Amino acid sequence: MLYLWLKTLHIVFVTSWFAGLFYLPRIYVNMAQTSNPDAYQAMLGMAARLLRFTNKLAIPAVIFGLWMMIQFKIGLTDGWMHAKLLLVAGVLGYHYTCTRIYRQFEQNKNTRSHVYYRWFNEIPVFLLLFIVALVIIKPF
Asked: Belongs to which family (predicted)?
């Protein structure tokens, strides 16, 4: 029963974490496009709140996943789990990059266009796709 609860909590927190990672760069797209200082400040506030919330979601997502993996010895010696963990490290790196980008916007030091952020916004989609595929298919 503990396994099912951990799995449920892991899925809920991962889903919520990714929702934040999907939306935060969309705010960056809009911030990079606007020339209205009031709109910029409003979006900066939205990004700050979303980033804080997303930070809080990442922690239990990782903890529940590791707990499940260690306690129930899921994939400890399997290649698919090693690949998944590498991709999760990529998600954490992406999240960190989102934080750094926010700080650039906060300091009015953004130098990238909205087009860059549109492409940047696609990265978590592929990370999630590959992670889910590894967990479901377990190819190696």
From this structure: Belongs to the HemJ family.
